[in-house]
UniProtKB/TrEMBL annotation, chain B:
Residues 19-117 form the Rieske-like [2Fe-2S] domain. PANTHER family: NITRITE REDUCTASE (NADH) SMALL SUBUNIT, PTHR40562. InterPro entries: NirD, Rieske-like_NirD. The keyword RNA-binding does not apply. The gene is nirD. The keyword Nucleotide-binding does not apply. This is Nitrite reductase small subunit NirD. Keywords: Oxidoreductase. Coiled coil: none annotated.
């Protein structure tokens, strides 16, 4: 590492500053003392935000400098790389890159929706659209790129869009509603992402590409052919070797068709231009800064422009190596280099080399299509050789470029990019095994997956954040990170495009193991195993009782004991969900099971604060006849119950004493109701909107599907409660994306979303698969649920589970869609066992006098009601009389992490 | 109010005001669970059976919520001592002493219990 660099434009106090107008996200009172220099940043995109973070890390904030940011977009910096994930449920807020309170904490003045309009380099001022003028000592341009729109006639018609910002996506989504066809101009990386998005919105989608193949920049001819097949199999229509010639519009100015250069024409409602980007260098041109011939603000290796007080970073910059980089990683690198130069002398690492060029590896983030290219993908180096594996049946194409000395120089992977996370870091070195072994599919002579242990320490594992294997190992060894999320937080690895997460996870686990770190992941003080491990033990050893499991697999000190309130219900649930497989009784009140269940399961009702219970009959899909509604009303009236409509589209009846449960249920069962399992860790409800049958927008019968799903999965015991919903169209009135598994109708079938959650920790569900027919949908949900039940921790909702498990959503998709573990047949069989074994718990209980015996308030006075369960009136109904109980309210003891005791 | 029948083999008795009071029969209890019973003065007790067949009794009122629900909690053992976890907010109570394991200052009344052959009664 060389000596610190002295910036040629040292920060010096400036002339008085034009007072800043009130802004959205500033903390004016914390502004720097008047003597501090001012740094103005134009553009708050991905690189701009990274630059601010880099300044903060170097302590160049508040006291040291006043920082003013002009942001053209109406929202602070967000993850543009993951933009398309908006269509699979990520909200704009979730895409944000700015931590809450970041600006205020560091006294940064952020002007949202106020673009800089001119720069006066002589006076060193920037003037924004609002009229605000700020004097600078150092100016940083991070204005990014704009999408290039080819000059086709009609390109400004209504229905023509670009694909760059959140606002673009919102506009596309709104316009696509009720429309049937879309064209994407450009078959590159972004064009394919945009096309995938249009397809997801239910449009028939065309891709028009001028080059003879898709992703011409990244992949070679063979890869292009394989990619085309895969893309066409997804139902997209590909036109290569043609350009758009003219767009025609109707009288109102809305797009109706696009004529192509080969004389043909596509009828379309919507056009997205994705024909490349151009650096936004207009501001720089206007103030006379040097720009490249083909655009881009010329900078040196320190990211300084031709004016030493002005820097340019990110996609707007023409780097010293003569290239404009359209990727985020090089931009991040520039942000660090510029922050170094500006903040030199301040503490923090200083880079000796500056920015001299970067890797342009990419991986496509398109559902179901695996495409990656890295390094010298086209084999341009002297004397290099290709190693190619191609299987046109499966659409797999892999090419590695190997140098004369045997070093891996680059490659293209289509259809199976599994190895990308491993191969990219190996680039530049001689791989530990022969290159042909690296491209062969597993089982065909490929080494049993080349682990990241084979990588040298200096290999860059995460390209987006330039994190080496060594840095990851050190995060575990020196910074005591013990989980992948901790390492992600510590090193930032895996927080960009996400393509390295698999390799990262393997590495972290290896390192933990090597360090002999053993984290007690045991379920509780009684078991050193996790829930998923216990599930496997119970399943493979066919253990049917809790006592058997405790005595054979409990911690030594817990064997022969009574267990605890944590593991008993968890094991009870495992045995119940495996019951059909084990041949055990699934009935929750039977034998030993009775002693394992929480009180709610024990009494098949939900305990309320005064010791009374609530009753929730199942109302599948929220559909109910007037007769049944009347029965619920009569039962509630006759037993004096409080009634409330729930969020799950059913009706709760509150205030029953334990001895009233059987007579109440006798009437409900008689009228055709079943247990709603509101008391169990089981399927709760499948909500629905009215769908196609009544709603003018509906495209499928969402109610029927909801009822089918609810009846199929009712009674299924799982690690936590399960909720679901079905919406009849993309308007999503049933809020399916807030559910563990949500289904949204498309014009051709159903999209399945998984891992959603409401409550305190909301999460939008992720798209697992799209355009499924009824049968495929149900089969996929069967597999998904059983895989979750098998591998989740105790009380782990699907949302947390998806976030936790290795490989995340991609892994789940591999397992349940592509059957990568060969488990699907077994998962389906288990669900079939559940479906045939289902019995209504309340009907069974009512038919068995032995089971009914427990429904008494007092064992020695079976007919005496509990005098402490009393009610007082409120709003024409009842509520618990708490004066009888009057005691202090104390916090709930948490049940998490009980291994310690 | 009907009291439990007096025929079967083994009954569970509590020491209340220096006298043994029969609350139920052993067969009324499930190992690992509890039942509620009324004492002659109207007080409520929670009676439990552990895995080895030993009976315990503590007051039924959960001091943290005021609700009479401890009999509906789950039994467990920690360091060889049996406890019940309240079904409402999950605090644990030692079944022999009534002491709350999660809050030192809190305890519920615990009762001495014994099991008796019905035949041996009166002897
Ligand atoms: C859909 C999509 C997918 C992508 N996928 C990948 C990927 O997988 N991997 C990858 O490496 N890269 C990807 N990219 C590219 C990546 O997003 C960019 O490289 C990155 O955002 C560049 O950051 P930046 O800060 O230079 O520009 P931007 O993020 O574009 O930020 C520039 C900001 O400056 C603002 N601005 C411009 N002019 C002014 C002005 N005069 N005043 C104030 N503000 C102004 C703009 O509004 C914008 O908000 C993708 C891009 C898109 C659109
Ligand atoms: S989601 Fe359902 S109710 Fe809402 S608009 Fe679509 S079909 Fe109609
Ligand atoms: S390589 Fe993109 S997040 Fe690591």
């Amino acid at each position: 590492m060389s000596a610190p660099i002295t910036p040629s434009a040292p920060i010096t106090p400036s002339a008085p500053i034009t007072p800043s107008a009130p802004t959205t996200m500033t903390s004016a009172p914390k502004a720097a003392p008047p003597a501090a220099p001012t740094i103005v940043l134009i553009g708050h995109g991905m690189v701009g935000q990274r630059f601010l973070e880099a300044l903060v890390r170097r302590n160049v904030t508040e006291a040291a400098a006043r920082i003013v940011v002009f942001c053209e977009e109406p929202r602070p910096a967000y993850d543009r790389v993951q933009l398309t994930s908006y269509f699979s449920g990520r909200t704009p807020a979730e895409l944000s890159l700015v931590e809450d309170g970041f600006m205020a904490r560091h006294g940064i003045e952020l002007h949202l929706g106020d673009p800089a309009e001119s720069i006066d380099r002589a006076a060193r001022t920037v003037t924004a659209r609002s009229g605000l003028t700020v004097a600078y000592d150092t100016l940083v341009l991070a204005t990014g790129s704009y999408p290039f729109v080819p000059p086709v006639p009609g390109k400004d018609s209504d229905g023509c869009f670009v694909y760059r910002t959140v606002e673009d996506l919102l506009a596309i989504e709104a316009y696509a509603e009720h429309r049937t066809t879309g064209v994407v101009v450009g078959g590159g990386l972004l064009g394919l992402e945009a096309a995938g998005a249009l397809k997801g919105l239910g449009l028939t989608t065309h891709i028009v590409e001028f080059n003879p193949r898709l992703m011409a920049i990244q992949v070679d001819e063979g890869g292009g052919a394989a990619l085309r097949r895969t893309v066409e199999d997804m139902g997209l229509i590909v036109h290569t070797g043609v350009g758009g010639k003219e767009i025609t519009a109707d009288d109102a100015g809305a797009v109706t068709a696009m004529a192509l250069s080969d004389g043909s024409s596509i009828d379309t409602d919507l056009v997205i231009f994705s024909a490349g980007v151009r650096p936004r260098d207009q501001l720089a041109r206007d103030c006379g800064l040097e720009v490249g011939e083909r655009g881009g603000i010329a900078v040196d290796e320190r990211c300084r422009t031709s004016d030493p007080a002005v820097y340019a970073i990110g996609e707007c910059a023409l780097a010293a190596d003569g290239r404009v980089y359209g990727l985020v990683a090089p931009g991040y690198e520039m942000a660090e280099v510029a922050a170094d130069a500006i903040g030199a002398g301040e503490p923090g690492p200083v880079r000796g080399t500056g920015f001299g060029g970067a890797d342009t590896s990419t991986k496509l983030k398109l559902l179901g299509v695996d495409v990656a290219s890295f390094g010298d993908a086209h084999g341009t180096a002297d004397g290099c050789l290709d190693v190619v594996y191609s299987d046109s049946r499966t659409g797999v194409y892999k090419k590695l470029v190997v140098g004369a000395d045997g070093a891996l120089l680059g490659g293209v992977l289509v259809g199976d990019a599994e190895a990308y996370g491993m191969l990219r870091p190996l680039t530049g070195s001689v791989p530990p095994v022969a290159p042909e072994q690296l491209v062969l599919p597993a089982g065909l002579g490929a080494p049993a997956a080349l682990g990241p242990s084979a990588l040298p320490d200096e290999a860059v594992v995460c390209n987006c954040h330039n994190v080496t294997k060594g840095a990851i190992r050190s995060a575990v060894a020196d910074h005591r990170c013990t989980t992948v999320p901790e390492v992600r937080k510590c090193t930032k690895a895996g927080t960009g495009c996400g393509s390295c997460v698999k390799a990262l996870t393997a590495l972290v686990n290896d390192e933990l193991e090597a360090g002999g770190v053993s984290v007690d992941k045991g379920l509780c003080g009684c078991f050193a195993y996790t829930r998923a491990e216990l599930y496997e033990i119970v399943r493979t050893l066919r253990i049917t009782t809790y006592a058997q499991l405790l005595d054979s697999h409990g911690r030594a000190e817990a064997r022969q004991g009574d267990g605890c309130e944590v593991c008993k219900p968890a094991v009870g649930s495992i045995i119940a969900s495996l019951a059909p497989t084990l041949g055990a009784s699934g009935y929750v009140l039977d034998g030993e099971q009775a002693a394992l269940q929480d009180t709610n399961d024990h009494f098949l009702a939900n305990l309320q604060r005064n010791g009374s219970y609530s009753i929730v009959p199942r109302i599948p899909g929220g559909e109910i006849t007037p007769e049944k509604l009347i029965v619920i009303g009569e039962v509630a009236r006759d037993f004096g119950l409080y009634t409330k409509i729930t969020g799950g589209q059913r009706i709760d009846l509150f205030g029953a004493r334990v001895d009233q449960l059987p007579p109440i249920w006798a009437r409900l069962v008689d009228a055709g109701f079943e247990s709603g399992h509101a008391y169990g860790k089981a399927l709760r409800t499948v909500k629905s909107c009215v769908g196609q049958t009544w709603c003018r927008y509906g495209v499928q019968d969402s109610v029927r599907m909801a009822i089918d799903l609810e009846l199929r999965y009712r009674g299924l015991r799982s690690p936590h409660k399960l909720k679901s919903a079905v919406s009849g169209c993309a308007r999503e009135c049933a809020e399916a994306r807030g559910k563990d598994f949500g289904v949204i109708a498309t014009s051709t079938g159903w999209n399945l979303y998984v891992g959603g959650n409401g409550g305190a920790d909301p999460r939008h569900a992720d798209l697992l698969a799209q355009d499924l027919d009824d049968e495929k949908l149900i089969r996929l949900i069967d597999r998904f649920l059983m895989f979750y039940i098998r591998t989740a921790d105790r009380l782990e909702r699907t949302s947390a589970w998806l976030e936790r498990i290795e490989g995340g959503l991609d892994h789940v998709r591999d397992v349940v869609v592509d059957d990568s573990l060969g488990l699907c047949a077994e998962l389906e069989a288990m669900m079939a066992g559940h479906v045939t074994g289902y019995r209504d718990e309340w009907a069974e209980t009512l038919g068995d006098p032995e089971r009914l015996r427990r429904f008494v308030s007092f064992v020695n006075a079976p007919d005496a009601p509990d005098p402490t369960v009393k009610f007082v009136p409120e709003r024409d109904q009842v509520k618990p009389d708490l004066t009888i109980l009057s005691g202090p309210t104390l916090p709930v003891r948490t049940l998490e992490g009980t291994a310690g005791r | 109010m009907t009291m439990a029948p007096e025929r079967t083999a083994v009954r569970v008795e509590l020491l209340v005001d220096q006298r043994w009071f029969a609350v139920c029969e052993l067969t009324d209890l499930t190992p690992g669970r509890g039942v509620a019973a009324l004492l002659p003065d109207g007080a409520q007790v929670a009676v439990f059976l552990d895995r080895s067949g030993r009976a315990y009794a503590i007051a039924n009122r959960d001091p943290f919520t005021g609700a009479y629900v401890l009999s509906r909690g789950l039994l467990g053992s920690a360091a060889g001592r049996p406890f019940v976890a309240s079904p409402l907010l999950k605090q644990r109570f030692d079944l022999e002493t009534g002491r709350c394991l999660d809050d030192e200052g809190v305890a519920v009344q615990a009762y001495v219990t014994r099991t008796r052959d019905a035949a041996a009664r009166g002897a």
